[in-house]
Amino acid sequence: MPSFDFDLFTIGAGSGGVRASRVAASYGARVAVAEERHLGGTCVNIGCIPKKLFSYAAHVHEELDDAQGFGWQIPPAQFHWPTLLANKDREIARLNGIYARLLENAGVQVLHQRATVIDAHTVACGDRHYRAKHILIATGARPVMPAIPGIEFAISSDDAFALPALPQRALVVGGGYIAVEFASIFQGLGVPTTLVYRGKQLLRQFDTELGVLLAEEMRKKGVQILLETDITALEKTTNHGLRAHLSSGQTLEADLALFATGRSPNTSGLGLEAAGVTLAADGAIPVNAWLQTQVPSIHALGDVTNRINLTPVATAEGMALARTLFRDQPTSMDYSNIPTAVFSHPNVATVGLSEQAARAQFAQVDIYKTGFRSLKHTLTENTARIFMKLVVDAQTDRVLGAHMIGPDAGETIQGIAIALKCGATKAQFDATIGIHPSAAEEFVTMREKSA
């Protein structure tokens, strides 16, 4: 029998790696996790958590404006970026500490160093080699910057969380989650912002109507959006600003350019190929239903596999892997009906199939949708509208997808996601009593088909 230092050696202490490690340890496995940066990975340090905190901050000015309609006389407010930055850093440090305690209390050995794979059962970490029965790669992904002249003058989303000062004018490039979120954040914090995207609509992987309507609502809030446009070059200007050259031949002036144009799996230099793991063309690690690579003892989960790159998916995969390897409960993931939210202004949330995907898979699809101004805004000058949509299989009446644009959309769709996971029908939605007055009740009161 081979001698192993650990039953599981995890490379990467993000959400998925930490969950797999501590759950495996709770099942009696001897576990080590190596992390060269901060515990918690992208989500905690330079992703979901700080971005949501920034989003909260960017919403405040709208709340102050709306307050006047309810009789509040509020003196002109001033925003102080260093205060937000310091408070954000304090919260992230607290979360780093929580992750450290979770691992320590579970008995996981934490190595604050870069680790690489030597072979199917060996990991190099610092000046030591460790033997492990199983190796888990959970190294996440990193931003990809386009190869255009002057790209060195731009920043990625990773850099946006430590800006020494807010820019006077911001340029955000991209049309996905990160781009629309940061464009909303900058605009909400008082920075005139332009969003440039080469595609025809925002959020192209979502239901088509969501991207179209989101652009309309973001424009209402002041974001300038240029679609079917690309940045061909950046240059420094004499006033320490930037000039962006557009594919249209025009130029834009800004003080900051943030590119959110994609992310790539963090597999470079890990030694996987030498250990026998063949990577996909984009650097992702192919895995089977049990999160196993072609080398049986090497596993991967989360963004490094470049499938559904969401923090809750990575944590669920971590739980599944621990059960499979150390509890004799082979567990594969169900990737259907995974809800997600985009914390743009306004928020977007979705679960299940888009209308386009449903029509491609089912013979007949019924669509129910509604758009309205919220009760709250009837006393304000805010013209924002809420949008909701249900996609239904006409033959079985099963709800295939639910989509929303509006305040706290993720909070509403999380509950709807449970219904879809249970296979709820439109008749069951209709039989559910709504909470009145609320926006969410519209999901159980839509009676007329729109298509």
Q: What is shown here, in short?
A:
With 451 residues, the chain is an alpha/beta fold.
Describe this structure in words.
- The chain has 451 residues and is an alpha/beta fold.
- The protein has three domains: 6-142 and 264-326, FAD/NAD(P)-binding domain; 151-261, FAD/NAD(P)-binding domain (3-Layer(bba) Sandwich), CATH 3.50.50.60; 346-444, FAD/NAD-linked reductase, C-terminal dimerisation domain (Enolase-like, domain 1, 2-Layer Sandwich), CATH 3.30.390.
- It has ten helices and 22 strands.
- Strands 1, 2, 3, 4, 5, 6 and 17 form a seven-stranded mixed β-sheet that branches. A five-stranded parallel β-sheet has the order 8-15-9-10-11, with helices on one face.
- A hairpin with a 2-residue loop joins strand 4 (115-119) and strand 5.
- Helix 1 (15-26) runs parallel beside helix 7, helix 3 (48-67) packs across helix 4 and helix 3 packs across helix 5 (177-188).
- The protein is globular.
